[in-house]
Design brief:
Elements: H1 23-35, H2 39-52, H3 57-69, H4 73-86, H5 91-104, H6 107-120, H7 125-137, H8 141-154, H9 159-171, H10 175-186, H11 192-204, H12 208-221, H13 228-239, H14 242-255, H15 260-272, H16 276-289, H17 294-306, H18 310-323, H19 328-340, H20 344-362
Helix pairs in contact: 1-2, 2-3, 3-4, 4-5, 5-6, 6-7, 7-8, 7-9, 8-9, 9-10, 9-11, 10-11, 11-12, 12-13, 13-14, 14-15, 15-16, 15-17, 16-17, 17-18, 18-19, 19-20
């Protein structure tokens, strides 16, 4: 049940008898409609009240709650932010804002909001777990490990903490520590979470067929488990089964439209099919989850190149190689753009640089990690 602030304790007075409506009566009607689940009526009534009392923090916050309950998260975010101008430290409004950002797929903003909230309320389990999940979705595995390790040492019975921390450890290549958490989850019986973690460990070990079996078992036990189809799709890509990978990514996005890896990898497959608008749509969503992520930015440039939008491809690739000068594929694509723009000298330079970097990598020299 949504949190209702003590609006009714506020002293309101009636308008003069000039045909104008009583604000207190409108507010009472809005709250009654809200409590009765009559969301559209409540939205209309809260807005009518706010026209008369625009500084009411509680009514604006309640309007945000109703809007979020109908999936209108962007409108809810606007109302929460307006409400926070009146009460910047209100924990209920800050949490509701974070949840709306999370559900909208604005994961970076949600993580920032939750991080500030966690600093103010470090004992709040919901905030902590949501923050850990946001960081996992952004690929910030080290942050998840640092956040949850002290908590897990104090409470080894919490399956959510074990699962989130185990996932981060395995993705961070800390296999032994991750395996301890897998074993702990397995002691509680056969579960989708355990098979997902086992599959992740096997995927990291390049045991693709064994990983697929675990991911499929996890999906069978819990088809709604976040990331299960995403991992299955990535593993199918490793085996070269693009048709199975495509199906898995689509299933993940049906239930979790903001999964970064599924958006990114399915966009690559759509690019190969020359569905450029579809690919860009998925990449835009991926970049909302992880703003500035290099692989997604590169794929946007690659789609623009394939679609013949050379100037857009040029701008994207030049920015990428400036930020990540060891990114070989970006240099190769940039050379292709230069050649198509009749800039042969620039193309030759990028081609030579890509060849040099490739030789260095094959010789085992240091390679810059692509963010």
């Amino acid at each position: 049940m949504a949190h209702f602030h003590a609006v009714m304790a506020v002293m309101l007075y009636c308008f003069a008898a000039n045909g104008q409506e009583n604000p207190e009566r409108i507010l009472q009607q809005a709250i009654a409609s809200h409590q009765a689940g009559q969301t559209e009526r409540a939205i209309s009534q809260y807005r009518a009240y706010l026209k008369l009392r625009p500084d009411s923090v509680d009514a604006r916050s309640n309007l945000g709650v109703v809007l979020a309950s109908t999936g209108r998260y962007r409108e809810a975010i606007t109302e929460y932010r307006e409400a926070l101008k009146g009460r910047p430290q209100d924990p209920h409004i800050r949490l509701n804002l974070s949840l709306a950002l999370y559900k909208l797929g604005e994961i970076s903003d949600a993580a920032a909001s939750l991080s500030a909230l966690h600093s103010a309320q470090p004992a709040d389990r919901q905030v902590m777990l949501l923050l850990a999940d946001c960081w996992l979705r952004q690929g910030e595995d080290r942050k998840v490990i640092d956040l949850l390790t002290p908590v897990e040492k104090l409470d080894q019975s919490d399956p959510a903490i074990a699962y989130l921390l185990g996932t981060a450890l395995l993705r961070n290549k800390q296999i032994d520590r991750g395996q301890l958490l897998i074993d702990r989850i397995l002691r509680n019986g056969d579960s989708a979470e355990a098979h997902l973690l086992l599959g992740t460990a096997k995927l990291n070990a390049r045991e693709s067929e064994a990983a697929i079996a675990d991911f499929e078992k996890a999906a069978q036990l819990n088809p709604q488990l976040p990331d299960v189809y995403s991992y299955l799709g990535r593993t199918h890509l490793q085996t070269g089964d693009t048709a199975a990978a495509r199906l898995a990514f689509q299933k993940e996005l049906e239930q979790n439209p903001n999964d970064f890896e599924s958006n990114l990898n399915l966009a690559v497959l759509l690019k190969q099919d020359q569905d450029y608008p579809g690919a860009i749509k998925l990449l835009d969503r991926a970049l909302r989850v992880r703003p500035g992520e290099m692989r997604a930015r590169f794929q946007v440039a690659a789609v623009n190149l394939a679609a013949g939008r050379l100037e857009q491809a040029l701008a994207g690739l030049e920015a990428i190689v400036k930020q990540a000068p060891q990114f070989v594929e970006a240099h190769i694509s940039l050379a292709a753009v230069y050649y198509r723009l009749q800039r042969k000298a620039d193309g030759d330079r990028e081609k030579a640089l890509a060849q040099k970097l490739t030789l260095q990598q094959r010789a085992g020299q240091s390679q810059e990690k692509i963010p």
